[in-house]
Every structure is written in C-alpha cells, then in structure tokens.
Sequence to fold (569 residues):
Amino acid sequence: CGVRAETEQWGMRWTVVLGLLLAAHAVSVRYNTITDCDESMNYWEPTHYLLFGSGFQTWEYSPVYALRSYFYVGVHALVAKAALVLAQFLQLPNAKIFAFYAVRGFLAFVTASCETLLVAGVSKVWGKLVARFALFFMLLSPGMFIASTAYLPSSFSMCLVTAGVAFWLLDSPFASIFSFAVSVLVGWPFVGVLAVPIGLYMLFSEKWYKLIAYGVVSLAVPLALVVGVDYYFYHKIILAPWNILTYNVLSQKQGGSALYGEEPWYFYILNGTLNFNVALPLALFAPLFVARYPLRLAFRTVAVLAPFCAWVAVMTSQAHKEERFLFVIYPLACLAAALSLDGVSAVVMWLFDCVHRRLGTFMRALLIAVALACFAVLSVARIVNIWESYGAPMRLYHHLSESELHNGADAAWPAPGDVNVCVGKEWYRYSSSFFLPGPRFHLQFIESNFTGELPQQYGPNTWNIPEHMNDYNRQEMTRYVPLSHCHYVVDLDFPGQSEPHYAAATDTATCSADSGCWDVVFWWRFLDASRSHNPLLRAFYVPGHSDTENTWNRYYLLRAKDPAAVVAK
Fold:
C-alpha cells in the first residue's frame, strides 16, 4: 500500500514503474555479457553441478577453504530447475539455455522490484521530481544494465541494500534491517558497513529494544538457513560469509585478494564514467546540496549519501579493484545523482530568477533536459558498445550449442562419444556449461600464457576434499589436456599473441603439432582496445564510425579437421 501511494501521487502507478524497469532489464537479460569469470566459474558452474551433476569447482568451494555458500547458489538452482521443467513441458530443444535466461529473468525481476521500492521511498522523502530523476538514471544506466542480471553476490547485495534503504525511507524499520541482514549473510558480508549510517539514524528515531528484537530475528533466520544448507553440502559447520571476510580482510597470508591483480587509484573513476557518464559527477557532488534541506531531512539525506561516499572511498583505497565491487551502490549512485541534479537545477533557477522569474524556470528546465538527454544518449551508446564490441563469446557459445551441435540431437556429431571443447587464454570468457547441450560435451583447458589457478571438475560430491587446489592462485598442471584431445577450440586471435594462431592452421602448409589443424566454424568480431586509438569510439558505439575506425580481431570457433580421429580425455 505504501508503494502504491507514494508512486501514484506523482502520476505513475507502481505497476508502471515496475513495468518500465522490467522492460529496461529485459534488454540486459538478452544482451548482457558475462563480464567476470567469477560469475561463470563461481556461480553458474556450481548451479550446473547441482542440476546436472557436472560443472567446474573453484578452490573457494573446497571444504578446506569454504569461502562460498551453497545457499545462494541453491536458490538460483531452484529457479533454473523450474525453468527446465517448463522447457520439458513445452518440448523446447535448448532447455539448458532456456534455464540460463530464466535465471537472468529472475534476477531482472528482483532488481526491478527493489528499484520500484526505492522510487517509492524517494518520492515520499524528497518528492516526485527527485523520484523521477532516480528512475530515469536507473532505467538507462549502463551500470544497472550490467549489474541487474549479473549472477554475482554483489548484484544480490545491491538489490537487498536498495530494498533496505527503500524500506527505511518508507518507515518500515524491520523490513529494512531484515534486508540488510540477508544482504550480509547470503550475499556479500562487506556490505554491512553500508547499514551503519541508517542504523545510527534508527537509534535516534526508534525504540532501542525494538531494534534489538528486529536485529536478532533478522540475523537468526538467514543465518540458520545458510549454516544448515552449507552443513549439508560441506558436511561440517561453516560460516561462508565469515570465511570470505577473514580471507580478504583479516588473513595474514601473503597476497590475499591482490593475487588476482591490482589497479591504479583512478580505476573506479574511469569505470564510473563509462557506467554513469554525466551522472557520476552529479553523484559525487551530491553532499554539497545537503544544507538546502531542513535539519531532519538533511540528516536523512546524509544517512543515504554517507554509505555511497564511504564505499567509493574504501574501494578506491584497495589495491585489488573490480567493477563488480561497486555494484552494491549503483542504485544509491542514481539516487545521489538525482538529488544533485535537483539541487543544481534549483541553484540555476535561483540565479536566473534575479534577472527574471520566468527565465529562472526556463533555465532550470533547460538544464534538466540537457543533462538527461546527454545521459540517455551516452548510456545507450555505451550499452550498444558493450554488446557490439564484447558480445562475441555469447554469440559464439549460442552458435556452438544450437547450430553446430544441434542442441545435442545428433549422437554421432561431430564424433561418437565424448566431445571436448577446448579453451586456452579465453577460459575466463566461457559462458558456462549451460551452453553445452548434453553430458557428452566437456570444456577442457589447453595451456596458454595464463599461469594462475584454473577450476577443475567437481568430484562425486561437494564435501570430499579435492586434490590439486590451493589458495595462492598457483598454477595446477593437472588442469590441462593436450591439443590433440580437442574436437573444438575457442580462441581470440590477435597479432603478437604468444599462443599459436590456431585459426591460421587450416591446411597442410600451416598445420603443425603445436597449432593443430582446424576448420573455421564460426567467428565474430571482437574489439582490439589496444589498437583502437580513439577513446570515445572504444567506449561508445557511434554508427558509421565505430565499425570502421576501431580495430577488430576475430573470436573463433574451430573444429578439428578430422574430429572422428580425436581421442577425448
């Protein structure tokens, strides 16, 4: 009822708000890429294992380390299972891919629902104009396009943090506390710091004994579920959120998360510019406009902006940086930008009111229109660029499953028995085993210039301790198969690569033991950022220019010349 009242008061029913957000995220369901190997290997692969008994296991799921919870994966596996049952009922030929997109659709629905709550809360506290701005930013933001359907704990926590803030704005403290608790225990434990400013505000506005009761219930329910499910899968009592917190923050082991790469201090500025363009500076300058509100509203505004600003500062100070680490504050960034745009436009109107009142109103409307138009154009150009420049892996694995392997319908193609699809340096762009149509198809690794630790196939269960795993990102040679065991190779071919140019080995003159001998089955272009010298065309798709002025490489699917002669591992 609160959601309906707060959205309808500014001329839009909550169903319209939800519908708009669902429509925007439906585009992400279909066209979002998998931008992080964590998504495929740490979440899609365990989900595939729970459903089909096969999939890759990373060291984080070894009972020795137990950094990941099966509860989070299990919820998504239930959605995928329901989709598989529906696909079987409808007799769909590509049930696994249908399940993949059904999970994405579920993620889109959860994200849109939490955003709708936030729009309602913003409308109640800051008014209809700020709510409209926040909705506009969330609808078109490239950051929300990426995060809304990413199967990652940071995306899940983004939704729950958004819900927690929204429920607080709607004066539902228990629902707010519960949302934050689930975000910490099921999603990503680090986001607990985002609840501190709102928690402090509640201490001064709510009865303390009620907050304690809310907190106990909110922690007990998800904690019992997480520990119970993980006990079943690990056969011991573990608390995965605590384990990942200690590994990343409290561990004395040399390296820690920095083993997986370090980025310069300005990484998030560049990334935020791509994902939010003109909304980024607006969001960062939002604290400047707190003083324009009455005291009580100013404190509420600080309680919302403080988590956003603190998270940016803390994440920027860390050596290991990844785009997904900021997912949790993306909706808050949209809210901050909305508050800032409202503040800037009000200042502009005040300045021009000194000349003429109508001029002030006109200049405010003009500023808002220009800002939103620039944001919309740049956002759409960025979203299109993501798919056009980096969508080749998703296109390729679609083609592999549906066109080349005929959804597994031909038991003798391309050869009887097991079939190996091999990846070298492109292992981290693997779209997941949901794109391999049956149990006789396997992803295998061949050696490349990557010298870190790769995942390995699950054993017969989840509680036995797997061999050849470490938490130092140290290469394990047991992961690799010889090239001669590959029926297919997936590779991005570019000048100067240290690996063989497999795509060039197509006849007796170019074939060798190192490169093999292949037929080109499929290729799609892939942006060569290092040789595309115009930064704007690298980042944003401009029709008529991006296609011709950027440099492109080819992302190949190659089939062995004589697949029947390949001996699968």
